[in-house]
Amino acid sequence: MDKKPFDSNKRWGYMRFIAAAVCVAALSLTLFGCGNNEQDKLKTYGHDGYMGYSNSNPNLPNRHQYLNYNADGNFVEQVLEPIAEIERTQVYFNGTDLHVNIKVNKALSDGQLERLRAKAQSIVQYNMPRYNVHVEVKR
Known about the structure:
Elements (H helix, E strand, L loop, with lengths): L7 H24 L21 H4 L12 H12 L5 E9 L2 E8 L5 H18 L4 E7 L1
Parallel strand pairs: 2-3
Antiparallel strand pairs: 1-2
């Protein structure tokens, strides 16, 4: 039995039929309101240069200067600056642990040293609640 090759006219006929069916289906969806409601329209966040990410959760600011170790370290130094006995501070992070090393005047007594450590500990812990704060005071 010899098979005849598929006729190219029939092939083009099938392709025209499929294309016409797709066009009719798309046209009927638009004309009869399927998916054309105001409620079904895509709602997007505003264009802010970050593809909507910073507007997607307004309670969490998504900026480069927010919630990073460098900004947090600068803030710790800023809140400890008014304490006159502190000569120098060193801040470093280890995950959720915040370590603050404070260098003070050698003339302070042991009692003053402990009060200063407790004061610095409470100030930093109050201002940085997302970290476990560890303060160490050295002469």
